[in-house]
Amino acid sequence: MDLFKTVETLVKFKTETGAASEIDKCLDYIASCFEGTDAVVQIERFKDASPVIFIRNNHDMLQDALVLGHIDVVRADDKMFVPYIEDGKMFGRGTLDMKSFAAVAIHSMLYVLKNKLPVNFGIILSTDEEKGSKSTHAFMERFPAVNAKVVLDNDVGGDITKIINKCKNPVFVKLIADGKQAHGSTPWEGIDANELLMRSLARLRADFPYYDLKSGAPENTWVDTMHVALLNGGEVSNIIAGHAEALLDVRLTETSTLEQLEMKLQSACVDGVTYKIVSSSTPVVMSETNPLILEYKKLAEKIMGVSVEFQQIGGATDARLFAEKGATVIMHSGTGEGMHGDGEYVVMKSVEDLAKIQIEYLKSLAHD
């Protein structure tokens, strides 16, 4: 089976998050890739979450290596689901995030099966990662014993010469301001909820400085950050707002705790403003001296003939669910740009290299 034919086929499925029919067709295609093999293929369905496909070369819950990823994509014009190749790059929705790397996992599994590698290898692909990964959580609740020695997380697209060893903890916070409505001509008769919200946000900026394209990045980007994702307050132009809300996206490094964040929120909220932690996660931090990661790094450098460096990112990863169980998480993917944008592409050579690295790493685990 040709690797890039698999990528093209996956990209052609319009698997926008929530598009149940297209997602089912894509899952059926993936399952069909393993017809006539000894693979154990399960498509798990849930009442309140989208499906997950679990593929493995064994019947165990504990794997030596496990690829964790997803096949859903963000919305795009129909033309983006017709992939094309130009200057060594494949363009299309999902080429970088992350159908190319799902195809790599499929081909790795076929290699393991064909060559009967003595390694327990599995693949978990969710179908709603772009909107919160509810399906992954549902899968882990149904199969709490599923774990792996090493989790290969290829959903960190951008640069194959970088291994991500740190991800921040994304915390979403809702600020709620309650004031008193009054006519806009007599503001002294009311309490402006919008004003209360803005004052609280201004006080929060003492702990979370504002950065943008004009200010540029701080000298050290591994810092806590906050941006105001949503603002909503008021009903009509001539009425003082009696209620307002803001949704904050806070990214915490591994040295900052949820308790510390709550202390800052309590201090910043003026009278009439309260907060609610909508969701929080766990930062994934992997040691640069971890022997399992160093072995992977060595193989990657040998195959590509270039140095591979460690890097940190502000985003989160579903692999945290396994990191919490003690698994070593290796966050590494191919090179590309335009994730979620109109010009999304992946460098084809990087996909080929990632496929070689993954197979060589599985072979090294098999010989341990």
Write the layout of secondary structure elements.
Elements: H1 3-12, H2 20-32, E1 40-44, E2 52-56, E3 62-70, E4 84-86, E5 89-91, H3 95-115, E6 121-126, H4 134-142, E7 147-153, E8 162-167, E9 169-178, H5 193-204, E10 225-233, E11 243-252, H6 258-268, E12 273-279, E13 284-285, H7 291-304, E14 309-313, H8 320-323, E15 328-331, E16 336-337, E17 345-347, H9 348-366
Parallel strand pairs: 3-6, 3-7, 7-15, 8-14
Antiparallel strand pairs: 1-2, 2-6, 4-5, 5-17, 8-13, 9-11, 9-12, 10-11, 16-17
Structure commentary:
The protein is α+β, with helices and mostly antiparallel strands and 368 residues long. The chain folds into 2 domains: 3-167 and 283-366, Zn peptidases (Aminopeptidase, 3-Layer(aba) Sandwich); 169-279, Alpha-Beta Plaits (2-Layer Sandwich). The chain is 31% helix and 26% strand. The strands form 4 sheets. It has a 6-stranded mixed sheet, with helices on both faces. Helix 3 packs parallel to helix 9 (348-366) and helix 7 (291-304) crosses helix 9 (348-366). The two termini are 28 Å apart.
Summary, kept brief:
The chain is of the alpha+beta class.
CATH fold topology of the largest domain = Aminopeptidase
What overall geometry do the principal axes of the alpha carbons give?
Answer: elongated
Q: What is the spatial order of strands in the main beta sheet?
A: 1-2-6-3-7-15
- pLDDT averaged over residues: 96
Biggest sheet character: 6 strands, mixed
